[in-house]
Design a protein that fits this description.
The chain has about 350 residues and is of the alpha/beta class. Helices cover about 40% and strands about 20% of the residues. The protein is built from 13 helices and 15 strands.
């Protein structure tokens, strides 16, 4: 059983806390709820607070969109930046956001997993919310396992206190940003590959964070752009003139984003694949992070489907959204906007995992 194996690795090889690990449970088949998954808030305080740019935006969308509509909120690790700051200082800085978290918690709609940057919370006696190493979400398409993802890295498993010491006492005083897997393409790829292998071997869906890179059905945005461009080129010859103009604009915007990703990644990493020479098994997802300059990425989940959503401020969105054929939802009275980048049915994902995860020969 995938769930038994998952429990074993979290409680055994992947845990360095010395405490009994907890795995939370959400059953969407019974309560018919919807789940929002976000990760990597890195709440801090002071001039170098990673959440400073999106913190008020995040609090507003949680309180005025997700909370009144009955969503369950999953905070998938690295919520507080405890490598740099004390919990007391963070709580003082982000009182409003904690107030919003408490709205969900009061109705048992808040689940919080531990990341490498906030794992020290297990030693906080008066922390107000329950903490988990991982979550198991039951859906019509089978179980979905949610964990931060740093557990896949031997660096954090064996030397967890070393990076924490470096960030708080060496890097922070000199204004140097976090040295983490999200800054290192090779380490990030290795971590994603390990998480992907676990999901394939156990024929299950995993949702991680940690790398700050969005994944949907095991594909990063770079892969999706190439597929989108190919599909648009196929549609172009049979389109009317007006539609051809829109397709040309879409392709131009996507190519610009592709170039941007190439500049930010090492080319040898981009050529690598999580799935080798096989067809990709759609088993690994990543909600991205909340601290991007261009907006907030998140995963939305119900009993039957999963979606990658993108929240942004009008005028500051990524170019491909501005020029693309995306339906934009406005949060009334604000410049905050939401769009769905990808959506898929869980039964279809389950079928592909079962069929494509089978080894040939």
């Amino acid at each position: 059983m995938a769930s038994t194996f998952f429990s074993d690795i979290i409680q055994g090889n992947f845990s360095d806390s010395g405490e009994d690990s907890q795995i939370g449970s959400i059953d969407l088949q019974k309560n018919n709820s919807k789940v929002l998954i976000i990760s990597d808030l890195h709440m801090g305080c002071g001039k170098r607070d990673d959440l400073a740019g999106n913190g008020n935006f995040l609090a507003y969308m949680l309180e005025h969109y997700y909370f009144p509509n009955g969503w369950i909120l999953v905070l998938n690790g690295d919520v507080e930046e405890l490598y740099r700051y004390s919990l007391a200082r963070i709580q003082q800085q982000w009182q409003n956001l904690y107030r919003v978290f408490s709205l969900f918690a009061a109705e048992n709609r808040l689940y919080k997993t531990l990341g490498n940057h906030d794992e020290a919370l297990i030693f906080e006696k008066n922390y107000p919310y329950p903490l988990y190493q991982a979550l198991q979400i039951e859906t019509s398409g089978g179980p979905i396992f949610v964990y931060h993802g740093h557990q896949s890295s031997n660096v954090y498993t064996k030397y967890g206190t070393v990076p924490r010491y470096m960030v708080r006492y060496i890097l922070k005083p000199f204004g140097i940003k976090n040295v983490s897997s999200d800054r290192n393409p090779h380490r990030r790829f290795s971590l994603e590959k390990n998480a992907y292998a676990f999901s394939v071997e156990n024929a299950c869906v995993s949702v991680i964070g940690h790398t700050h890179r969005v994944l949907f059905e095991s594909l990063c945005r770079f892969d999706f752009i190439r597929y989108e461009i190919e599909q648009l080129c196929r549609d172009y010859p049979a389109s009317e003139d007006q539609e051809k103009g829109r397709i040309a604009a879409d392709v131009s915007a996507l190519r610009a984003e592709l170039s941007s990703i190439k500049r930010s990644e090492r080319k040898d990493v981009l050529r690598k694949s999580l799935y080798g020479d096989e067809l990709p098994v759609p088993c690994l997802f990543n909600s991205g992070s909340v601290i991007s300059r261009s907006g907030i990425n998140a995963l939305e989940l119900d009993n039957e489907s999963i979606s990658l959503v993108y929240w942004f401020i009008e005028g500051k969105q990524r170019k491909f959204v501005k020029h693309g054929n995306y339906r934009i939802e406005e949060l009334p009275g604000t410049t905050y906007r939401r769009t769905v980048l990808n959506n898929e049915r869980l039964d279809y994902i389950k079928a592909r995992i079962e069929l494509l995860g089978i080894k040939n020969g």
